[in-house]
Amino acid sequence: MTDAARNPAEATTFLTRATLIQALLPIALVLMVLGFTIFEPRVISADNLLNITIQASYLVIFATAQMVVILTRGFDLSLGNTVSAVSVTSALVMTGMAGANGESVATAIFLGVLMGAGVGLAIGLFNGFAVAWLRVNPFVATLGSFNIALGIATMASDGRPVFNVPDEFSRLVYSGTVLGIQMPIILAAAVLVVIYFLLNYTVFGRSLYILGANPRAATVAGLPSRRYLMMAYMLCSLIAVVGALMLTGRTGSGEPNLGGNLTLESIAAAVIGGVSLRGGLGGVQSCILGALFITALSNGMNLTRVDGYVQMIVLGCVIILAIFLDRLRTSRM
Amino acid sequence: MNVRILQAQPHPETGLERASRVAATVGLLPILLVLMVLFMAVVEQKFFGMNNLFNVLRSTSFLAIIAAGQMLVLIVGGFDLSVGAVIALTSTVMAKAMALLSAAMPDQTAAVIILGVLAGLGCGVFIGLINGLCVAFLRISPFMVTLGTLSIATGIGLLLTNGIPVYGMPDVFVKEFGRALWFGLPATVYVAVALIAIVWFIQQRTRLGRYIYAIGGNLQAATVSGVPATGYLVLTYVMCSVLASITGILMTARLGSGQATMGGNVMMLQSIAAAVIAGVSLRGGIGRVELVALGALFLSILTNAMNLLRIDSKMQLVVLGIIVVAAVALDELGKRRRVRD
User: Taking a contact as any Cβ pair under 8 Å apart, which residues of chain B between 308 and 327 contact chain A?
Assistant: First the structure.
């Protein structure tokens, strides 16, 4: 919903400027990659570009998860720890089943995935119930489940990594290829396509935008706001489950601190890409852009051997700068 | 916050009405607090040991100061995710400054301490200014700004120390202040009480306090009424960071070394939890520092009680999470019932 859409007369005069500002972030992304190339030619090699894409596949999934709830003016602080809890519990089921009873590996993997999805959905249900029915502020509700999920993750594993996740699982979600394309890219693309259609072509998806843009209007219009809000939080956790299983396959073990900084990173990626924290604005493409931007930035800094601590400082500055640019973009349109 | 003034009371209040009004403004928190202390009195005598009470008081003081700052920012409708990182930055900068200065001028301990503390406070002012200027003038969402400064402050702290604790602060600072008892109470407690009193005074008796409520209640209305909102917004963020910085100084003095891992996201989340439990609205405009101090006391006692009862530390996380959500949900339900009445 842009100004141009509302006032067709102004559309032409603002078109060039609006397009320019709209393209600011993609331009910044390209300039940044080129800038790194000056210092380190390998940045732009095919291998590294593929590497960036694979790395970004993970972040884009978590950013998409986060976007679903940010659209409704919420956010999910528990996302990172949900990832940890899912990773640990699914790994425990997989190793337990595959080792002891001589069950087939496929069954073990299936049950592990089911377990992970169950844990994720339970956390999403908690968040959604607290936000939609108990009217607890999303920050507080997900702060609560942040602690709960962390508790589950460390309790289930005793704080230690769960090793011996079946190789078949790692091949399925990490090292395997289909038509020469790496599994993480395929899985991320699948998630993005599903969420794209959900957000744009279903009543539920369109309602999320209305819930964020104007909650009262949504209720007055007769939308089942509470149910949709709760479903949004469950969907967020479910998408996070996919990412968590992919990360578990990559490390080959269930890690109780896998989530770590994912919460803040996923919010940063979504918002840098153009998802508004005030709700109702954003889409799958924003998440792709934001995730690519953050991944390319840290990849470039790694290749040019920037100190890890300096990277944190740079990342902080870039987040603030990117949001400022984005604010210019949204206020001009 | 001015709603009560508008409610005319044509008939004199009965005792019951007054009691229910007080309960409505103060909330469930004090009742829960008393119940918890009574429970501990029955179950675990160690809770009332001198050492344990001092520990509770110290952690309450740390949390209350940082939560008071968080509350101010929440009242203007903002957020400060960077408070934990400010603690870490303050801790490393102050310890580093004191260590360098006391090596340079070993005889002038007083000057070393004063300059070191000033360097620490400077970190708070610095981060607070970045936060405030970005929020007020560039109109960037507080969540994202402070997420950025969280990363920046943590990075600087780690860069300065390489993650290694910084020793070499003057002994006097640690022994006579950080770990000292003044008139039978930890020194930290006096600092916390004084700071809470100052914030209370600002909130209740000064123009600054009223403006902070006004900006949070309705930014546009405040601006139209002539409140220089941008200036006061910056000031609020600086106050929050400075309070976090003071917490960092107290914690460093207690520990005896500067640590880049001090505070962190745990302190940040707890400061928000303490404020929210005390009824501070995340939508801005509502919040009282005396209740926030009570919220900090509640969280500290809860953690301490669970430690004494030997509840598994991982289980404690789960309990803490459920209690925070439940407290806010009850508060929210209570509010709705009152509106219906």
Answer: 312, 314-318, 320-322, 324-325
